[in-house]
Design goal:
Layout (H helix, E strand, L loop, with lengths): L4 E5 L3 H13 L3 E5 L2 H11 L3 E5 L7 H8 L7 E5 L4 H9 L4 E4 L4 H15 L3 H7 L4 E4 L2 E4 L4 E4 L2 E2 L4 H12 L4 E3 H9 L9 H12 L10 E4 L3 E4 L5
Parallel strand pairs: 1-2, 1-3, 3-4, 4-5
Antiparallel strand pairs: 6-7, 7-8, 8-9, 10-12, 11-12
Helix pairs in contact: 2-3, 7-9
């Protein structure tokens, strides 16, 4: 099996060299660049398994890079920034980032985030065994397939990022039932819900747009206030 290919986009040369050496020593393939405009071209041409993307970059900043590539690039993007402010995290997630880290980067935390993001983006063999009897959910015009990680809406493919697919699959498996925000966070982020994590809400928002849902009055992915989300069975 080929080593996962990571594109590291970081304008701090010393930090970039340290991260690159650390990841190569752990058997990742790493390509490094230091500008946002270069990152755009490399993401499109290389299609790396994961992107580590600094928020502040020359040429084009990291948020704009993320926003620009996200419609076509479905692999994980982890944003890295020097500023520990909630607005930066929210903006990064709204632009389509899968995760968010602040500097100074701790090596083990970075490695754990990378491995978790890669596990989410590639179907796990043990997961397939568990889900084999029911790897596809069909709701009128919507088809969600966990083996191919594909989505069709009215016979047209819907391109989702890895984390968007994960949310949709969890909702589709329990279509017509309320899925709590707590269980979504625990399943998808790997830690207990603390009442403040907004990443699930932002993924739901992006899903609604791609599935043609009404953001003001959603009828496909419904918010059940105080409880969670529900994927409607009869609205496709």
């Amino acid at each position: 099996m080929d080593a996962p290919h990571i594109l590291l986009v970081e304008d701090d040369i010393a930090l970039a060299e340290w991260v690159e050496d650390y990841l190569i020593a752990r058997e990742f393939k790493v390509t490094t660049c230091h500008r946002g405009d270069d990152a755009l071209e490399l993401i499109r041409s290389l299609q790396p398994d994961l992107v580590l993307l600094d928020g502040m970059l020359p040429g084009i900043d990291g948020l704009d890079v993320c926003k620009t590539v996200r419609p076509d690039f479905t692999n994980p993007i982890i944003m890295i920034t020097a500023r520990d402010e909630e607005i930066d995290e929210v903006l990064g997630l709204e632009m389509g980032a899968d995760d968010y880290m602040t500097k100074p980067i701790r090596a083990r935390a970075l490695l754990a985030r990378i491995r978790l993001a890669l596990r989410r983006s590639v179907p796990n063999q043990s997961d397939n065994v568990i889900e084999a009897p029911r790897h596809e959910v069909i709701l009128s015009g919507l088809t969600v397939n966990s083996e191919s990680r594909s989505v069709m809406l009215n016979d047209e493919p819907v391109k989702l990022s890895s984390n968007e697919f994960d949310v949709l699959w969890l909702l589709a498996k329990q279509a017509g039932e309320v899925v709590s925000r707590e269980s979504l966070v625990t399943d998808l982020r790997g830690f207990d819900y603390d009442g403040f994590d907004r990443s699930i809400d932002l993924r739901i928002s992006r899903l609604r747009k791609k599935l043609g849902d009404d953001s003001a009055n959603p009828f496909r992915i419904k918010t059940i206030w105080g409880k969670g989300y529900l994927l409607a069975k009869d609205s496709w």
